[in-house]
Amino acid sequence: xxPPAGSQVSRVPAxxxxxxxxxxxxxxxxxxxxRRRLRTVxxxxxxxxxxxxxxxxxxxxxxxxxxxAPDRSAPDVVVDNYLRAFLVDRNDTRANLFTCEGNGDRTxxxxxxxxxxxxxxxxxxxxxxSWGPLTRTETSEGESVATTLTISGSANGQTRSSRQExxxxxxxxxxxxxxxxxxxxxx
Length: 187
Fold this sequence. Notes:
Strands 1, 2, 3, 4 and 5 form a five-stranded antiparallel sheet that branches. This protein is of the alpha+beta class. About 40% of the residues lie in helices and about 25% in strands. It contains five helices and five strands.
């Protein structure tokens, strides 16, 4: 339908841009792949793996500390651990974890270990130390623990010599538990 004659609309030519000025037709949007779902799954899986790893590291640390911490819970326990570290394993660093700091006289125990080492070197034997029951007695400075040490020398799997000695160890309780302060041969 034509506009009525004399109207202004009819006199204005239609204004259309030339076809070279037209914007190209927009391309059809590509179908979206489900990246968000894949990304979410990967994020959740990664988070779970990281949490499990961190939990494993923390549990390992706690278990290692419990296993490596010296047991100084009772006088007889600390004497047992000290004798094992000092005379059996001959590990001074470990033995020091069970001794009083700075004070105490453990020269008799050190002398016993030196004697054991000399016998091994001089006679080509293996000397082993074991002990019997550990008996606790209260003292004015703490407690003492008495035991009988058995010192046996063997070569080629056969016992060459064996002797027993009675020993008393003085122990004191500190902020981190019990510690061995001295050890003396009785009699």
